[in-house]
């Protein structure tokens, strides 16, 4: 306090400059403000909604007039055998899909390493261009592809297998619950592998060529060079991306599972987000009170599980 | 890359090349398969008989499918949300990215974190939906644009890029009495064009592909996007085909080229994929550059 006064009384020009700087500070802030308000509205405001989980909220009645329920809904969820089973099933699905995507997160690394072994040339460029393309289409379109290729009566795969004599009857490849987790993982790989690999290809081009020379002098073969030079060179990038995957463990994408879900595979495809949507929004009893709280609780659980 | 390897390793190259060739084919084949099915004889494609080569080539499907009520509107909605949304997102990202390079900004560090943190969490579907409801974002075209406008990732990209440009350029403009807005528009924007190109592409692709916001927020069919219409057609194509048939019956079309559920699905899919495939060759080198910039900066 005192020092501020001292400066202002002691040195006018400094005070003036300071006031100008302060004006600049707020001008800058005011220019950013409209955008920050948008962030507040769309990202922070929804957090307030978690409070509904502790109230006996009914549509039309303001929250202030609703009864505070404490942990009532949470206790109810744990106490009810059916609800517990449901939540466990959904969590199992979520964990399985996220686990599989973590397990397959090394594939882009392998892809990039082996592609860089091909050298530079038209083939490498072609592979890069075409394998990246699926990343830029929507999941709806991926589903449309799946429909064309794997449907029962006019799908490509069934026709091919039948004309080659491998099968007599069409296989139900989409409306089946047998390999849902695997199928979802494979689709995800198909869509994202080439794209994720680009990041590693970029990282490989950043590795010092002298390291390879040195390794060669030491008698390292092609695979030893990959293992002792390329792989360690990629690890920092890998861990950054892995961390992102882990951060999204609970929040592992809604769209893919939504478009691929059907009456038969719902048991294994319902991840947390999809489940919340299915019971909360689609059943159109969104505002039926118990359901609503239940969904709120699920929503609430999510960040807690993230930590 | 490392040439002069012994011939004994050629089996490795052969295997390697083969695996990549197969995966590349698997990535590209669905696009080709979709295309040949839209231009082939509709009866054959409905039975799944068009597998590798198109037969009975014709292009009437595109005209026919455009006549489905609501499809043209949805294309218009998708195009306008892509154009407007991208403009807003790129402008907002560029401007905010620039502002956040200014140390003088009041509470800069805090606000930057305030922004970046939103990359890592969200409140969940229901609270988000309730807020959108309260903000009047349901059945509102703005719902396609405003929530996307401020994107932390793009802002980080712009900020790092601006920081890598020489500070003297901005300083000299400041000496000449230029304000923040003038500096932004006259000095910064021209300098950061490469990163803006990358952001434009990413944002446009996101906007074009977005499906869930229509699903959650829009019930008015005038605001349906092409993606949403495609999803609906995947499930309702049979009834639509019947409608189309009754419409065609009066005009005396060639019976073999009547629109059927498969044709509707594939042709609408073509409308969805065409813009991406058409611009892809041009933007491919930009996003590779963008990724390189991003990965180098870490």
TrEMBL record, chain A:
It is found in: Cell membrane. It is a multi-pass membrane protein. The chain crosses the membrane at residues 26-45, 95-116, 136-161, 181-207, 227-250. InterPro entries: MetI-like (IPR000515), MetI-like_sf (IPR035906), UgpAE/MalFG_permease (IPR050809). Keywords: Cell membrane, Membrane, Transmembrane, Transmembrane helix, Transport. Its main location: membrane. CDD domains: TM_PBP2. PROSITE patterns: ABC_TM1. Residues 91-307 form the ABC transmembrane type-1 domain. Belongs to the binding-protein-dependent transport system permease family. This is ABC transporter permease subunit. It comes from Paenibacillus hexagrammi. The lineage of its organism: Bacteria, Bacillati, Bacillota, Bacilli, Bacillales.
UniProtKB/TrEMBL annotation, chain B:
The keyword Cell membrane applies. It is a multi-pass membrane protein. It is found in: Cell membrane. Residues 75-283 form the ABC transmembrane type-1 domain. Its main location: membrane. It comes from the Bacteria. The keyword Protein transport does not apply. Belongs to the binding-protein-dependent transport system permease family. This is Carbohydrate ABC transporter permease. It comes from Paenibacillus hexagrammi.
């Amino acid at each position: 306090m005192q020092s501020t006064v001292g400066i202002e009384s002691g040195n006018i020009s400094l005070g003036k400059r300071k006031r100008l700087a302060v004006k600049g500070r707020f001008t800058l802030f005011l220019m950013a403000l409209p955008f920050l308000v948008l962030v507040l509205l769309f990202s922070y405001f929804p957090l307030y909604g978690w409070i509904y989980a502790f109230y006996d909220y009914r549509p039309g009645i303001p929250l202030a007039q609703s009864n505070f329920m404490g942990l009532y809904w949470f206790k109810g969820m744990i106490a009810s055998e059916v609800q517990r089973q449901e939540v466990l099933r959904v969590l199992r699905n979520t964990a399985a899909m996220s686990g599989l995507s973590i397990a397959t997160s090394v594939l882009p690394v392998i892809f990039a390493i082996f592609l860089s072994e091909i050298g530079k040339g038209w083939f490498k460029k072609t592979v890069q261009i075409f394998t990246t393309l699926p990343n830029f289409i929507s999941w709806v379109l991926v589903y449309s592809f799946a429909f064309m290729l794997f449907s029962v009566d006019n799908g490509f795969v069934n026709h091919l297998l039948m004309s080659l004599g491998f099968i007599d009857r069409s296989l139900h490849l989409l409306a089946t619950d047998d390999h849902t987790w695997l199928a979802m993982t494979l689709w995800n790989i198909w869509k994202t592998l080439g794209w994720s690999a680009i990041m590693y290809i970029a990282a490989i081009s950043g590795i010092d060529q002298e390291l390879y020379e040195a390794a060669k002098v030491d008698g390292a073969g092609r695979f030893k060079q990959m293992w002792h030079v390329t792989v360690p060179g990629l690890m920092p990038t890998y861990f950054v991306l892995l961390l992102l995957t882990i951060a999204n463990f609970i929040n592992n994408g809604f769209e893919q599972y939504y478009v691929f879900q059907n009456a038969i595979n719902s048991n294994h495809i319902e991840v947390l987000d999809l489940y919340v949507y299915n019971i909360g929004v689609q059943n159109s009893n969104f505002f039926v009170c118990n359901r609503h709280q239940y969904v709120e609780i699920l929503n609430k659980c999510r960040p807690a599980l993230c930590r | 890359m490392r040439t002069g390897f012994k011939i004994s390793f050629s089996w490795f190259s052969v295997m390697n090349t083969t695996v990549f060739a197969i995966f590349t084919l698997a990535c590209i084949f669905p696009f080709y398969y979709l295309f040949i099915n839209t231009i082939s004889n509709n009866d054959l494609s409905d039975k799944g008989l068009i597998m590798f080569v198109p037969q009975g080539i014709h292009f009437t499907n595109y005209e026919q499918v455009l006549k489905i009520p609501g499809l043209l509107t949805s294309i218009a909605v998708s195009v306008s949300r892509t154009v407007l949304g991208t403009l807003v997102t790129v402008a907002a990202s560029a401007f905010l990215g620039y502002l956040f390079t200014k140390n003088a900004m009041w509470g800069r560090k805090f606000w930057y974190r305030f922004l970046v943190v939103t990359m890592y969490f969200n409140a969940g579907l229901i609270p988000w939906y309730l807020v959108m409801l309260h903000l009047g974002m349901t059945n509102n075209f703005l719902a396609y644009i405003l929530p996307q406008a401020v994107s932390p990732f793009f802002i980080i990209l712009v900020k790092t890029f601006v920081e890598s440009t020489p500070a003297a350029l901005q300083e000299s403009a400041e000496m000449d009495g230029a304000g923040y807005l003038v500096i932004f528009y006259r000095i910064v924007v021209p300098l950061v064009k490469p990163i803006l190109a990358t952001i434009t592409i990413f944002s446009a692709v996101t906007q074009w592909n977005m499906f869930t916001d229509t699903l959650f927020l829009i019930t008015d069919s005038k605001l349906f996007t092409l993606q949403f219409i495609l999803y609906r057609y995947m499930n309702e194509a049979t009834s639509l085909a019947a409608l189309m048939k009754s419409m065609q019956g009066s005009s005396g079309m060639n019976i073999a080229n009547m629109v059927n559920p498969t044709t509707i699905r594939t042709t609408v899919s073509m409308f969805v994929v065409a813009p991406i495939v058409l611009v892809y060759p041009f933007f491919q080198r930009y996003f590779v550059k963008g990724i390189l910039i991003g990965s180098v900066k870490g």
